[in-house]
Amino acid sequence: MKIQLNAGDGACFPYHFDSDRAVDSRIVTAILYLNPDWRPLHGGELQLLPCPLAPVELEPLFDRLVLFSSVDMLHRVQPSWATRLSLTLWFYSADSADASAPRIEPEVDALGVLLRPDLRHLFARYAYSREWAVSIEQSHEPSPERQHALDTQKHDVDRIEVALQKKLAAAGFDADALLDAKRSLPLLPEQSTVRYFQGR
Question: What is the CATH classification number for the domain harbouring 151?
């Protein structure tokens, strides 16, 4: 369990997954919001990217409980302009073996292959790589550390792209299949500017 208190002033958190099948057995994230006077202008929305479905934004309203997959749900916290309080709990698999990817039959198209449990996590990082980079820029003041985080993210995405292309090639798809699958997703609207929210 984690209690999180943000003081506002544009505080936010970049995209991330809460867990990884190879690291731990967390399977469900539950967030309870404790903000009785929250207003839309306060920001601080939880943004979920349920690849391949459309993004979802939820305000941190009092008594709202949000549950999602710790492993597969890419998410972030948008900049908030008021004190924001939440309680996060994680639910674990009873058996660590349950956290491994289940065996499934091969899919008939490239997107189906990329959404298999063992690849969905990587495909989401690839598909939303631009939005992920923007969220890092919004969440951190310009610094060598922020640049390192951006460089690391780009390096990781380049490696993911190569790995996914190999997986698709092994399943009989050509090199363009990965880009075609990404284009088929309901991606976020274009973000023409990047803003860093400095304290007021």
Answer: 2.60.120
Q: Would you mind telling me the total number of residues written for the chain in this entry?
A: 200
- Range(s) of the domain holding residue 92: 2-183
Please state, in angstroms and rounded to a whole number, the distance separating the CA atoms of residues 131 and 143.
19
> Based on the structure, what is the number of domains in the chain?
1
For residues 200 and 9, is the Cβ–Cβ distance under 8 A? yes
**pTM exceeds 0.85:** no
Q: What burial class does residue 172 get, using C-beta atoms within 10 Å of its C-beta: 0-12 exposed, 13-18 middle, 19+ buried?
A: exposed
Residue 12 lies in a domain: yes
Alpha-carbon distance values, 6 to 69, 74, 79, 137 (Å): 23, 21, 10, 18
Q: What is the pLDDT of residues 106-153, one digit of tens each?
A: 557 899 999 998 899 899 999 999 999 999 999 889 999 999 999 999
Q: Is residue 101 part of a domain?
A: yes
